[in-house]
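Morning!

This is the sequence you dropped in the shared folder:
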Amino acid sequence: MATATRCNGLRRDGQPCGSVVVLPSGYCLAHNPVPPAAPGRGDATTAATPVAAVVPAAAPVPLQPVFVSLVETYHEFCAGRIDAETADVRGRLGLALASLHARLHAAPGS
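The structure's back. Tokens below.
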């Protein structure tokens, strides 16, 4: 089994982040030193990169649309198009879906 790449960032307590959702920069969304520009804005590099390109190869296929939605939510929040409460609700829904997926696949007979 391949070892997952982990975020190079550090948590507030100084421990390694540990997130396996890593962008090409080597960091997760929270630790990325250069936040991506909103889709269609920013320099030619960020504008030309489709959001789906940041989905990790190890992401289960049923969760890939959820991950894309979370990245789009992050872009929308950074651009000021949605408020923190909306972004938080979307993030919590994404976490709930990922948790449910993990439970279903950990169940006997899956």
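Headline: The chain has a mean pLDDT of 75.

More detail when I'm at my desk.
O.
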